[in-house]
Structures are given as C-alpha cells and as structure tokens.
Amino acid sequence: MKKRLTILVLILILIIPQINLAASKSKQEDNFEVELREGPIRDQNIFVPTKNGVQRATYEEALTIEELEKKSLDQLTSAYLLGDYDTGTILEAKDIDTVRAMASTSKLVSIYLVFDAIKAGKISLEDKVTMDAASAAIKGSNFDAKAGEVYTVKELIEAALVVSANDAINALAIHVAGNVDNFVQMMNEKCQALGLKNAIMINPHGLTKYAGEEEALYNRMSAREMFELARHLIKDYPQILDYTSMACINRPDRDYIGYSTNPALGIIEGVDGLKTGYTNAAGRCMIATGINKNSKSPMRIIGITLGCKNDWARYVAVKKIVEKGFKEYVLEDMADPKKALKEIEIPDGRPQKIGAYPDRAVKIIKRADDKVEVSYKIDENLTYPIKRGQSLGKAIYYKNGKEIQVVDLIAKEEVKEPFLLQKIQILIRNIFRDIKNDKKETQEKEVLEK
C-alpha cells in the first residue's frame, strides 16, 4: 500500500506542472486573442492616412473627421492659399503675407540646392554619403540612420521628401556645402534669388532652435512665398514629384519601412506632392500639389494650409482646399501662339489674307458659371508690306464683363506688294469700280432732283 501511494504521488508530481503549463499557455493564447480584439477595428467606408499608410478609418477616426469637416478653412487653419501652378494666380487665400514658422516645409529649399548641385555637376545621385554623428543624432522625423552608415544621394533625397527625415537632409547639406553653416548661407541666398524677401533660413531641416528660455529661432517665410517656392521648384525640377509621389520607403536590408507624411497621397486622386511640416512654432502645415485631370486643360494646383492644431485638422484642411481647387476651378487654353485667332484681309497684298497669331499663350482659370469672351481690335489701314512679327492688333479677354488679359496679335508671314501684272489688274479693277460708283451717285442725284 505504501509503495502504491508513493507511485501515485510521483505521478501527480509529473502531471501537475504539465497541467499548469497547458493552462498557462491557454491563458496566454486567450490574452493574445483579447489583445487582437482590442486593437483598432478599421471597418469604416472611408480611407484615412495612418502611421502604416492609407487604411480604412476606425469608428472613432470617422467621427473625428466628420466633426472637423463641419468647420471652415478659416477655423481649421491660421493661414491658407489655393493657387494655380501654371499662371501663378492665387484663387483663394487667408492671411498669406504674415511671415510664419514653416517647419519641415523648409526642406524644399534644401532640396532645391541639392538639385542645383546635381545640375551643376558638383554631385550626383549615385554619390556615396557617410552618415555623420551630428546628423544621425538629430531628433524628430528620421530615417533611423546610424553614424558611419553609407547611403546614396538619391536614397537621402527619398528619405528627406517621403518621411521628412532630418538626418538625411542634414547629411545632404554637408555633402553639398562642406558644412551646415555654408549650406544655410546658400539657402538664404537661394531664397533671395527667388524673390522670397521675407524668408530666413537657420538650418536645413526646419526644427526650432532655442537660443534661450524665451527666444526661439526657426526657418520662416509667408504663405505667398511658400507658393512661389513650390512653383519655382516644380518648374525647375519636375522630377521632385517622382519622389513626393512615393507612398513609402521599404528597406528590408535595414528592417526599415517608413510611410509618406503626405496625408492626401493615395486618398485624393491626382495629388502627387509636396511637403508636410510640424513644430510647436509652426503647428501642422502642408504644401500640397496635384493635377486636376478633369479640367479642360490639365491644371496643377498648389494648396497651402498653415497652423493646424493636430494631424486630423491638417488632413481635413488639406482635403478641403485641394478638393475645392479640383471641383470649382478649370483651366482653359484660350490662345496658342501656334494657332491663328483671326484671319485679316490685306487689300491688294500678296497674299490678301493672313492669320493673326497671339504672341503668347493665354490660359484663363474660371469657375463653371464664369462667362469668358474675347474681342479683337485690329489696326486700321493695314496694307503691304507687312513683315513677320509685325503687330496687327490686339485680342482682349473678358471674364464676367471685366477685362482680364490683353494679348498682341502678330503676323507670322510676310505680305508683299503685288506683281506688275497684279498692279495692272488692280488698277483696271479700281477704274471700273470708280466708274460704277460715279454712275450710281449720278442716278441717286437724278432721283433726288425729280
């Protein structure tokens, strides 16, 4: 009996830990299932920007957006601007001349200089850049680069524009100019060359520099100047859009994946750039751009929102201003220098009819209900000889009855004097015309006398 009891105790000693282990494992699995169920449930019918890219919204996110969409752009921002890239026309705006902190949107100035250096042949996209310790230590949005790691210029441009990497843009600044101070001087010179008179740059990335307890230094310019900066940059280096339209950077070799900071990318069709920013001094800001493909002529707009209080407010503000630009405005090609606007008669000339061509393209931005008209003012007593490029008159464009543009009309072919035989024919024709006119006048006079 004693022996049997001993065996039973031994069996229990062996079995009980296994039971506890199984129970523990089961409990862990149950907890895992609970954690899964307690994670964000993304089941709403709208897509939103998240730290992991564009996804369906959670119920709470959808409610937040719904409430923010009830607010106006005036309420969501401290300043905003909607403008046309091609013509430079500012369509809608609020407080665009106040000079403000611009946070990481100032990376556009830095990237401008990088592209300038590539164009000048000073550096190339395939140059190898060793990440320095100072750049790697910069806080804020980063590429998680470590000191001593080597990247190409192209990889650092991607990081600076897609994930707003401060370490990447600082390393590029040193590669271009030798040190940060030289690069900042170049930034300020570039701003002045572009006519951005209020712009002040203190670093390549846009982070606030605290000089004391009360003094804060930061990159700054007005919303109007940000608009001009974006226009110049896209015009000079349209390849920037190849970078800013990237949804993410995926580097499996580094176990790194970073998604674009642009909240409108992948959500609003046509959006392909440009740059976000955030500091306490600047609030959440954004310079967005995209092409309205539904316009009669493809129309690139630039929408700027500044001083938003949080990420969702910025997202809604950007969405409002971009969609407003796409829905309410169209760009129409009214005149093309390669196409004659009007045919003009040149009596007795050779030839006797020529086309009147605009000396430049005319594009007009209009709302759907705007009425655009054109009138022509042709120079009086036009006669041969006429030279190529000679002015023939003007085309005047009106929108809703208000004059908005005047374009010169020019000749693109010569009008010469007629040949001798033509001159004789013209002389005979004129003689018979005069005889006919004299006879008609005589008959009319006789009728009056009777």
Characteristic terms for this protein:
450 residues, alpha+beta, Beta-lactamase, Peptidoglycan synthesis regulatory factor (PBP3), Domain 2, five-stranded antiparallel β-sheet, 12 helices, elongated
Descriptive overview:
The protein is α+β, with helices and mostly antiparallel strands and 450 residues long. The chain folds into 3 domains: 76-328, DD-peptidase/beta-lactamase superfamily (Beta-lactamase, 3-Layer(aba) Sandwich), CATH 3.40.710.10; 334-410, D-Ala-D-Ala carboxypeptidase, C-terminal domain (Peptidoglycan synthesis regulatory factor (PBP3), Domain 2); 420-450. It is built from 12 helices and 22 strands. The protein has helices at residues 2-38, 59-68, 73-76, 107-119, 133-136, 153-162, 166-177, 180-193, 223-236, 240-244, 311-328, 420-449, and strands spanning 47-50, 53-56, 79-84, 90-94, 99-101, 128-130, 150-152, 209-210, 216-217, 220-222, 248-251, 256-259, 271-279, 283-292, 299-308, 330-335, 342-345, 353-358, 362-366, 372-378, 391-399, 402-410. The strands form 8 sheets. The protein has a 5-stranded antiparallel sheet, sandwiched between helices. A 5-stranded antiparallel sheet has the order 17-18-22-21-20, with no helix packed on it. The protein has a two-stranded antiparallel ribbon with strand order 1-2. Strand 14 and strand 15 form a beta hairpin. It starts with a helix and ends with a helix.
